[in-house]
# Entry
Amino acid sequence: LLTAALCLVPLANLFRLSYGQISPDLFTQAVGRSTLNTIAISLLVTFFSLVIGTFCAYFIMRTNLAFKYPLKSFLLYPYIIPSYLLAIGWIILANPSVGILNRVYPFFNIYSLGGIVFVESMFMYTFVFLNVCNVLDSMDGSLEESARMCGAKPRQIFFDVTLPLLKHTLAGSALIVFLATVSSFGVPAMIGGPG
# Structure
């Protein structure tokens, strides 16, 4: 009751006061298209970030790879660099008219929905990577070893043992990536504007 009195009542009052101030321009076709594009981009970035981040974290934490800790630091560089700088770098590399990559791959157009998803995913996967690395580091490896001793193949171990243990981490990471992508403005403005 105390929470309802302190939070819900002022929030309901805010909605009541603002409902009369809503402009009909908010419900135009362009706003609806922008909203659908935002949701589509956010869902795609969330999917690719989950795949890339989980794969990289599993590869770093569950293999006896040489130089795994420098590689882990290298994979976290996009987390340090602002996303709009990454977008500028990819615009220079993959610009349809003067980009260096378009000499090799002329079909790649950075000024597209795919370009936005690509650049956002190259930044957002770090949230998933950090979360999954922390969980895999603290998770007991004997479960996976037991499955291996029982004859399970590495693919079975990943899908039947490791992935179910990561489901809460992946759900939380997906929510973080989705919300961060929805609130991202710089990358879609720079890449989507010319397209």
Summary: The radius of gyration is 22 Å.
